[in-house]
């Protein structure tokens, strides 16, 4: 979608100014009823869709003038916007087939946002979807693509952006009132309303993230366009945590820390639905002062305030508070201005009505939506990144808390376990194996006989053969299979995910890595997942192995390449001529080997070595 210099989208199909816009509403729940009432009051409501008969009954009873004599839900409101009235239906297709309907408001539960919005866009309707745009980032991008392909407006209901009071704060930031923005702090606290289907972060944090991105976009010069979107969206989740303090099924408190390195802005969000006092504050601090948006302040004239006092660091390192360049003796002594005191509010309305009007205006004029699909995607990306951080933090907390009471495998004389090592209950360990200092063996591990694991070795859900020796500081992750007599040098590394991302959990995508009988892996080597190290191969120290290594091959380098061939004992093989073809002799044992084109039992190998049977005069290599 392209944007003109005037802030209009060149790819949108504009609506005739003389034509009335009619809306269908999908979802008659608590917030859907608010949309319904606003649209109905303006005479812009054509139909309401909901799967629940009870929800439609509740909606019907809340609207004045409903014709109760009509059967079913295809019924007429006395105060309808035209003769055909407002239709209540369970069938989305019925609403979309109505020729009056040109726009749809999607207010269904979040997990249904993508499918409903996609259908509406594909049917040629402009769509206002409640926050969050959907639950998966690739679904958000798909909605943006479908909207662009069909030249339709896609808008996300980040309601607070349309609050006139918040717009006053944005104008002050745009005008440079507080100078360069450095930090934002948002608190959204209340007692209830609890949602068993989602955490407090999922339910509430998108409001504050949208505000943060919108403020960041105002710090850039130029129009509100794709460039400001991009710069403003580059917030990374530095930390995130959430907890369940009530035993409720979902977390009820969350804290997020974000940073935009490009703009040099930090942001902090605290949200809770178990706080005894209701609070909604958004604080933006800059180099020349601070703006506070306090939506619940009892004095409405103080909902947006400017504090001109700002800290200044002197050359000697001391800090003093300065108001308009004059020294201040203590915090709070600077000027405080109520930015709403003298504002003309004659054109103001409630944020939801203004959100609808902005949506309508963008449909008619082709202007760029303030909270379009792209911003919805960026909010979702940050929210999902925070969720992933919270999940990781919670899992780590639970792991540490459970260590003291974790069921351990009973010590046995069959194998040796140092007192500092942890062997989880359920692990199978063969006789004669030794597990040394600070090792951790997980419950699903299967370890053979006569193995040795040096200090600080981690063994996950993997299979390990007999006679394996693992040196210090090695982690054998889920998906690794070790054959008999494998040697792993100190600090060598296995991976088990091909495309790891911190913010994306991919525990179902572990890739198997196989290390066959007699293989040696040198110190600090890295084995990229999905490869096979065939029997008696030798990986040199520091090598990075990215593809299969054939039997008896010696590799090193980054990426690892074949440089030589080795015997079972690990000595270099020397080529010799024998009966017109090349054979190889072990430089120490004198055992002969010959190269064969292909092992019929190993489809992945194009060549392999095979020991030649020893003659009476040749030493055997066993």
TrEMBL record:
> Which keywords belong to this entry?
Transferase
Please give the superkingdom of this protein's source. Eukaryota
Instruction: Write the protein's name.
Output: UDP-2-acetamido-3-amino-2, 3-dideoxy-D-glucuronate N-acetyltransferase
Q: Where is the composition biased (Basic and acidic residues)?
A: 596-605
The annotated region (Disordered) lies at: 596-622
GO molecular function terms here? nucleotide binding; transferase activity
CDD domains in the record: LbH_WxcM_N_like (cd03358)
- One Pfam entry name: Hexapep_2
Q: Which ranges form a coiled coil? A: none
Which residue numbers delimit the Gfo/Idh/MocA-like oxidoreductase N-terminal domain? 23-158
**Listed InterPro entries:** Gfo/Idh/MocA-like_OxRdtase_N, Gfo/Idh/MocA_Oxidoreductases, Hexapep, NAD(P)-bd_dom_sf, Trimer_LpxA-like_sf
């Amino acid at each position: 979608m392209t944007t003109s210099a005037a802030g209009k989208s060149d790819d949108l199909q504009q609506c005739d100014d003389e034509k009335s816009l009619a809306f269908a509403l999908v979802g008659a729940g608590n917030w859907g009823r608010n949309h319904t009432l606003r649209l109905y009051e303006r005479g812009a409501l054509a139909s309401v869709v909901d799967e629940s008969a009870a929800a439609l009954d509740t909606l019907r009873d809340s609207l004045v003038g409903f014709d109760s004599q009509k059967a079913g839900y295809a019924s007429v409101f006395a105060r309808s916007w035209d003769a055909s009235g407002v239709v209540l239906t369970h069938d989305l297709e019925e609403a979309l087939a109505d020729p009056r309907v040109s726009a749809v408001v999607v207010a269904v539960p979040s997990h249904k946002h993508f499918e409903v919005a996609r259908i509406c866009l594909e049917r040629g309707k402009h769509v206002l979807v409640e926050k969050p745009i959907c639950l998966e980032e690739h679904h958000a991008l798909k909605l943006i693509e479908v909207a662009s392909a069909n030249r339709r407006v896609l808008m996300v209901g980040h309601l607070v952006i349309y609050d006139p009071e918040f717009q006053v704060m944005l104008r002050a930031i745009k005008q440079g009132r507080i100078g360069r923005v450095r930090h934002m702090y948002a608190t959204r606290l209340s007692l209830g309303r609890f949602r068993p289907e989602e955490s407090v972060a999922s339910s509430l944090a998108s409001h504050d993230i949208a505000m943060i991105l919108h403020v960041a976009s105002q710090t850039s010069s130029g129009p509100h366009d794709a460039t400001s979107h991009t710069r403003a969206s580059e917030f990374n989740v530095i930390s995130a945590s959430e907890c369940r303090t009530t035993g409720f099924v979902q977390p009820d408190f969350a804290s997020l820390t974000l940073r935009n390195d490009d703009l040099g802005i930090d942001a902090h969000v605290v949200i809770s639905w178990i706080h005894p006092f209701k609070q909604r504050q958004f604080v933006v601090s800059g180099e020349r002062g601070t703006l506070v948006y306090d939506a619940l302040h009892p004095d409405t004239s103080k909902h947006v305030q400017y504090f001109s006092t700002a800290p200044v660091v002197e050359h000697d390192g001391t800090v003093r508070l300065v108001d308009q360049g004059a020294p201040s003796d203590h915090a709070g002594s600077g000027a405080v201005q109520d930015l709403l005191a003298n504002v003309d509010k004659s054109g103001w309305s409630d944020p939801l009505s203004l959100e609808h009007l902005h949506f309508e205006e963008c449909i008619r004029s082709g202007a760029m939506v303030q909270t379009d699909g792209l911003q919805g995607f960026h909010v979702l990306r940050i929210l999902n990144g925070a969720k992933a951080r919270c999940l990781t933090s919670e899992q780590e907390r639970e792991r540490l808390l459970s260590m003291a009471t974790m069921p351990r495998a009973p010590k046995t004389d069959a194998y040796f376990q140092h007192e500092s090592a942890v062997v989880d209950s359920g692990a199978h360990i063969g006789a004669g194996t030794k597990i040394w200092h600070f090792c951790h063996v997980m419950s699903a591990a299967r370890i053979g006989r006569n193995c040795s694991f040096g200090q600080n070795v981690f063994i996950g859900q993997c299979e390990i053969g007999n006679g394996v020796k693992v040196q210090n500081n090695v982690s054998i992750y889920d998906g690794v299979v070790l054959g008999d007599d494998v040697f792993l040098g100190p600090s060598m590394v296995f991976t088990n995910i091909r495309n790891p991302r911190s913010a994306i959990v991919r525990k179902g995508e572990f890739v198997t890595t196989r290390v066959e009988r007699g293989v040696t892996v040198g110190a600090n080597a890295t084995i990229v997942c999905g490869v096979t190290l065939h029997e008696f191969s030798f990986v040199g120290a520091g090598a990075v192995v990215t593809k299969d290594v054939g039997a008896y091959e010696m590799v090193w380098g980054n990426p690892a390449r074949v440089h030589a061939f080795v015997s079972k004992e690990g000595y270099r093989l020397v080529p010799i001529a024998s009966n017109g073809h090349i054979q190889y002799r072990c430089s120490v044992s004198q055992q002969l080997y010959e190269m064969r084109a292909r092992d019929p039992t190993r489809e992945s190998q194009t060549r392999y070595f095979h020991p030649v049977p020893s003659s009476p005069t040749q030493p055997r290599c066993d």
